[in-house]
Amino acid sequence: MAGSARVTGAYLCCLTVVLAAMCCSSSSYEVQDLKDDIMKNCRFYIEKNMGSTFPPEESVCCQDVRRANVANICQEFTDQDKEKIALHKWAAVTKVCRNALAAGTNCAGYIVPPLHA
């Protein structure tokens, strides 16, 4: 009976590890998908060579920004993304969309400055 309990315990331990890994992996895919949505829906506001207008609060861009953990999105920006976008514009968009990056946040190498009164 003791051997059976050990096998069951080991099985449950392995199952827990697998489920935890799947959960983290799925969360990573969600962040990546949301970053891709932001890159598409906010491109006119964050790309280097675009105008400096801000998105309307009701825009799809702002909807995506509000549902994102914006600091996690910063961690997902690749070198390719950083060639296309201006990180200071991304920080400004997060503020305009009411989900601002905190001052001092390191967003893919850009340090978000303190807000001026």
Tell me about this structure.
There is one protein chain. The chain is mainly alpha-helical and 117 residues long. The chain has one domain (27-111): Hydrophobic Seed Protein (Orthogonal Bundle), CATH 1.10.110. 64% of the residues lie in helices and 3% in strands. It is built from 6 helices and 2 strands; from the N terminus they run ααααααββ. The chain has helices at residues 2-41, 43-46, 60-67, 70-76, 79-84, 87-96, and strands spanning 106-107, 110-111. The protein has a two-stranded antiparallel sheet. The longest helix has 40 residues, at 2-41. Residues 12-26 have low confidence and may be disordered.
Mean pLDDT: 84
What is the CATH C-level name?
Mainly Alpha
Contiguous helical run count? 6
Structural class: mainly alpha
Largest beta-sheet characterization: 2 strands, antiparallel
Provide the low-confidence segments as ranges: 12-26
CATH topological fold name: Hydrophobic Seed Protein
Characterize the quaternary organization of these chains.
single chain
Write down the Rg: 20 Å
Give the strand line-up of the largest sheet.
Answer: 1-2
Distance between the termini: 70 Å
Q: Compute the number of strand runs.
A: 2
Counting structural domains, the number is: 1
C-alpha geometry:
elongated
